[in-house]
Amino acid sequence: MAGNIFGNFLQLASFGESHGVAIGGVLDGFPSGITIDLEQITFELNRRRPGQSQWVSSRNEPDAVEFLSGIYKGVSLGTPIAFIIKNTNQQPDDYEHLEDVFRPSHADFTYQTKYGVRDHRGGGRASARETSARVVAGALAKQMLAKAGITLQAYVNRIGAVAIDQPYYDLDLSQTEKSPLRCPDPEISSAMEEAISIAAKTGDTLGGEIICIIHQVPVGLGEPVFNKLHADLARAIMGINAVKGFEIGSGFKAASMTGSEHNDLFVEENEKVHTLTNFSGGIQGGISNGEDIYFRVAFKPVSTLMKPQLSIDKEGNQVVVQGKGRHDVTVVPRAVPIVEAMAALVIADHFLMNRMARF
Amino acid sequence: MAGNIFGNFLQLASFGESHGVAIGGVLDGFPSGITIDLEQITFELNRRRPGQSQWVSSRNEPDAVEFLSGIYKGVSLGTPIAFIIKNTNQQPDDYEHLEDVFRPSHADFTYQTKYGVRDHRGGGRASARETSARVVAGALAKQMLAKAGITLQAYVNRIGAVAIDQPYYDLDLSQTEKSPLRCPDPEISSAMEEAISIAAKTGDTLGGEIICIIHQVPVGLGEPVFNKLHADLARAIMGINAVKGFEIGSGFKAASMTGSEHNDLFVEENEKVHTLTNFSGGIQGGISNGEDIYFRVAFKPVSTLMKPQLSIDKEGNQVVVQGKGRHDVTVVPRAVPIVEAMAALVIADHFLMNRMARF
Amino acid sequence: MAGNIFGNFLQLASFGESHGVAIGGVLDGFPSGITIDLEQITFELNRRRPGQSQWVSSRNEPDAVEFLSGIYKGVSLGTPIAFIIKNTNQQPDDYEHLEDVFRPSHADFTYQTKYGVRDHRGGGRASARETSARVVAGALAKQMLAKAGITLQAYVNRIGAVAIDQPYYDLDLSQTEKSPLRCPDPEISSAMEEAISIAAKTGDTLGGEIICIIHQVPVGLGEPVFNKLHADLARAIMGINAVKGFEIGSGFKAASMTGSEHNDLFVEENEKVHTLTNFSGGIQGGISNGEDIYFRVAFKPVSTLMKPQLSIDKEGNQVVVQGKGRHDVTVVPRAVPIVEAMAALVIADHFLMNRMARF
Amino acid sequence: MAGNIFGNFLQLASFGESHGVAIGGVLDGFPSGITIDLEQITFELNRRRPGQSQWVSSRNEPDAVEFLSGIYKGVSLGTPIAFIIKNTNQQPDDYEHLEDVFRPSHADFTYQTKYGVRDHRGGGRASARETSARVVAGALAKQMLAKAGITLQAYVNRIGAVAIDQPYYDLDLSQTEKSPLRCPDPEISSAMEEAISIAAKTGDTLGGEIICIIHQVPVGLGEPVFNKLHADLARAIMGINAVKGFEIGSGFKAASMTGSEHNDLFVEENEKVHTLTNFSGGIQGGISNGEDIYFRVAFKPVSTLMKPQLSIDKEGNQVVVQGKGRHDVTVVPRAVPIVEAMAALVIADHFLMNRMARF
Q1: Per-residue pLDDT at B327
Q2: Could you report the per-residue pLDDT of C296-324, keeping only the tens digit for each?
């Protein structure tokens, strides 16, 4: 209700300010009997972590997760799984000058006005650091889904003006993690690096796109009419910091297509119903149809610039703001595991709920 | 949970199959003391209704809403407002041939597989007829919002290949309802009519886009981090039949922009904080900032075609399907009030919840 | 949230004022594939209905339920089941004198103060007539539970000073419905009739107790720690009009017992774990243990008296109020199906949720 | 949904097993701008803590709470308040013998059957240690309520056969905390000590009763019909370990009363509506009426006995169990702050929600 609890049955309560004691979460509704691979969770956290390459920030947050409950002898108990990630390496001096300032396109002004108080350090609750909790919970969800054969893969499709042209199924997605920018096409990846390098020189930042594919989702997930599977995915993804757009399947292209182009014809293959095309993006009437689910996400460029910008302070006085320390030129590569995590939570939630559809 | 209840505090429980006895809803959490204008609700229903022009279908559903509770002497009681719209003018014969058939890009196959049974007549629960309940509830929400000075306006920005080029603030939106297609630009509206006419001749259908603007939203609406205002809007809108994409503010364009282009600089005007540009779309950090909220929605073309398509039946046998009776070439103009209704429900819900942010 | 939606996964949205157009409900989350016995639902409604005997009121509400959705060819679709019961036989003249009056121990004053407006006719939303919607939804839940072998039985254990002494398992509960007061002991039933007769003569009213037993609940229902099965039952039952107390198993007697008296010892019988006694009331740690679940409920006497009482009106002026028309001397016998209905909704809800406990 | 998140708008996500790393909670929806008194929270935790007297256990859990988020410079931010209490002083050897055993009237059997796995150490998730998280969250709620003038007081009304006879308003409740058993009547308190002493000698345990009073609740709290204020209180209280019964106001006594005895007559005093008696317990039609809210709670005797009992293990073999270490003879005095905490959470939740009743 107050915005920090996510999910229908599988629920994540997330907490933490960027420079508070810790961030973390409580995952309720996770079923018992699942062996938890802690290394896999650390691997996912490291994918989100700053300082992975020269391009994507260089602060060094260790992001070590500690599990407090819900797992016993390596197996989930069916009770809430709580975890924390302590905030270390804080340099509050970097933020003192921002206490009374509203940075452009940040949440400073809106939080201050809504709540009357705020923790300005590092963006407080509005910091993307909060998404670490989502990555941990998503990693747990992935392990549950893996037991059902469901897997997720996301990749960077665009950084600024540089984008991949082909659809996902024409790419070799096994190359994604080999690219420092999580772009499966090596040439495009290099071009992206160049674009970032140019933006960095002028103290500017870049946005981009991520595409995510979910494989082997069984038919039947999704609760029409308001919790259509893609509607819940949209909410999950649009709730990630800096996301401005979401499309499922054909997306905005569908608006220019005719019905005869867009309709996915059914065939039966090996006694399984299948569609010849997949403009639907694996979801029809809000319910998964067994095809690949895929969606595209737009990220705006990072708001913190390394060059001066005009803004105002709480009293309305004009001030000049400029990022201190080191900040990401683009967050899109680091957002890949976050997108996967949120998608995994949605699919896992609906996977469980679908057990109740029939008597 | 099971998908038919929408909202956090202000909750709509929707029900009804296309060819059942009635569709309707129960709106809980609607505050007391609001004078209800029933004519305004009928007006909104008529905007959604088929048969408004030669282009957008020609079945003639009367869609008369009956209120059953929650209103006494014309004023809301604070108790649930229940309403029904009876299903009349049903021609079940039109659907008999579809009982065992999975129409392409419809919800036939997924419903059948999820539930094991379905009401195939007119799409059953998956029919867009269900959105009438949303329009009624949204009309109530609009009346509440109007008391707070908040208004919504949506319009058709694209039908198939024909689209408006300018941003919303360069259009004369007072012209929207004068166009049979709810396109505020008369020339584009005519071009859209032509495109529809051509599609109709070949038994084909068209998709399109709607842009919606919400004016005078006070600063502070939205519950970070998972119920960001645009995340809840995204879920609401993506849950409308045929929607494939959603973007807030700059949307997918943001992905190609730099931070210095995209940042909305703050200024103070008349002791009010204001931004010089509005790429944020009126929402920062998930919370409204007082600027116009605007978003764009993509609709796929109608799946029911007036020409034969190959498909399969329940047993996997190949069959040919073709729409009978009269169907919409495009639903986008009729979707305008539905988009507004869902947006109004989200804003009203957050308007109420925001009362709890501070002690 | 606003109080008119009940349940976790299986959710009932209830609506209606006593003298509005209709009362009814929308039951979401009811699984597909259950054959619905409409006569059984009418039977349950008739058990709740006034005018069943000389003692329990004599208004004649027909209470005919109409189903609007969610059932097709007699089978549940998995979509919301909506139903209405029209309010007929209203005699608003009976209530005109109460428009500005706060009747003692009614909800007149609290509703008026909370909402600023109210529908005073027949108690409006606070009328026990609202419980008809619960009985219908509960009757559906019972049919689902019956498929799993779970049954419920409630009976009147006390009217005023007249009470049954034995525990439920020493009674012949098959006699319950043969008694006009739903008391399975014929002698006690007669004594209760006499007590009611005496109270009626003086225009007074009586309270009482109901005991409810739920048989064949499988082990594992209940979600610790906050949705313990008996906690959800308590909320369900305490939300019935006029209920003042709830106890599970040993209840208040447990407070005076020692641990060695109260502990239920486990034994294994026919490879099934079983307890020798059942002070736990079939629930341990919030989870059903396979024994009978039983609980006791206290009802206060009806607040509307057929003799004059002092009260005040909205302006604080002293007034005299007295019931007009015919009112129940006691509602306890009519509350038996309501208690069963609410318990059935809770058990059905937890029955479904328990499917998600394990991977 | 899965039972570990409590509340409607103000939501507590609780986590932790007795002998895991830590227990704790996340409180979402707590409004911003409230100065937090940490000492008061420690005070409440100490009231719940074992080892307070010779009678109520003698393990020595330090129960030091650490706040991780949601508070900045001593003031609530409106973001989630997370806190943990580390589990120290664990003596797992005390529990090894219980790994495969089902202790009588404990949750061992039901957890094992529901989840297939369990953390048997100290009761795992079913341990009353979990209630520490409730006490912390309740202490926060109390601080919010105190700003609105609302206070809560609970006391021990019965231990085993020894009980207070007078109603709460005839007692000097300022004496409650001076009694080691939280019994405001010094003589009864001594008699209770004696009863405990006798039970201790035989290795037996005792149950009891708590009465809780909530003062200065404004008129209007409570959401009819399913979230009646006393229904939400009942769920909250029945969810506390060992609770078997709950009654509001007149409670079970109401069942034997007549309407003319039970009705609370309205009067106006100093322009405020008031009732001459308060059998309603401060709630009418589910909504607070401004009078004292009071309720009574029954606790069963502690299940762990210091004398041998027959039971079975997982394989159904007969075993003998007996508590090791030191256990409470009665938990009722320690449950006083838990009852207050849960009641405070409910009242605070409804206090916030009531802001939305009217436009």
Answers
A1: 84
A2: 999 999 999 999 999 999 999 999 999 88
pLDDT digits (tens, 9 = 90+) for B116-137: 999 999 899 999 999 999 999 9
Tokens standing for residue A223: 């609760």
What's the full length of chain B, in residues?
359
Q: Within chain B, how many helices (H) and strands (E) appear?
A: 7, 19
Decide if the complex's ipTM is over 0.95.
Answer: yes
Q: Does D288 touch chain C (CB under 8 A)?
A: yes
Residues of A in contact with D32 (CB under 8 A): 115-117
CA R_g for chain A: 21
Does this model's pTM top 0.95? My answer is yes
| CB within 8 Å: D359 and B1 | no
For chain D, give the percent of residues with pLDDT over 70.
Answer: 95
Closest CA to B141 of D177, C246, A260, D359: D359
Most confidently modeled range among A17-31, A45-59, B43-57: A17-31
**C-alpha closest to that of A276 among A254, A255, A261:** A261
Average pLDDT, chain B: 94
pLDDT in tens, C82-133: 999 999 866 656 677 778 899 999 999 999 999 999 999 989 999 999 999 9
Extended strands (E) in chain A = 5-6, 11-15, 22-28, 65-67, 71-72, 75-76, 81-86, 101-102, 151-159, 162-163, 208-215, 243-248, 266-269, 272-275, 283-284, 287-288, 293-299, 309-313, 318-321
Taking CA atoms, D111 is separated from A78, C221, C229, in Å, by 9, 10, 13
- Count of Cβ atoms closer than 10 Å to residue C349 Cβ: 27
Q: Rounded to an integer, what distance in angstroms lies between the CA atom of residue C260 and that of residue D204?
A: 6
| Residues of chain C contacting B1 with CB distance shorter than 8 Å | 8-9, 11, 28-29
Bridge partners (DSSP) of residue B37 are none
Judged by a CB distance cut-off of 8 A, whether residue A59 touches chain B is no
Identify the three-state secondary structure at position C347: helix
* Interval A303-347: pLDDT, tens: 999 999 999 999 999 999 998 877 899 999 999 999 999 999 999
* Backbone angles phi and psi of B286, in degrees to 5: 90, 0
Give B-chain residues touching C68 at CB under 8 angstroms. 15-16, 20-24, 84
Neighbours of B197 (CB within 10 A): 12
Strands D162-163 and D151-159: antiparallel
Q: What residues of chain A lie within 8 A of the CB of C9, using their CB?
A: 9, 353, 356
HSE-CB of A84 using CA atoms within 13 angstroms? 27
B 113-152 residues with CB below 8 A of A?
Answer: 113-116, 125-126, 130
Among the partner-chain residues C238, C253, C286, the one whose CB lies closest to the CB of D230 is C238
Quick one: how many helices (H) and strands (E) in chain C?
Answer: 7, 19
Handedness of CA D276, D277, D283, D288 (dihedral sign): positive
Whole-Å CA distances, B94 to B89, B301, B325, D65:
12, 21, 7, 67
Contact partners of A by the rule of 3+ C-beta pairs under 8 A? B, C, D
Cβ neighbourhood burial of C173 (10 Å; 0-12, 13-18, 19+): middle
Residues lower than pLDDT 50 in chain D = 56, 58
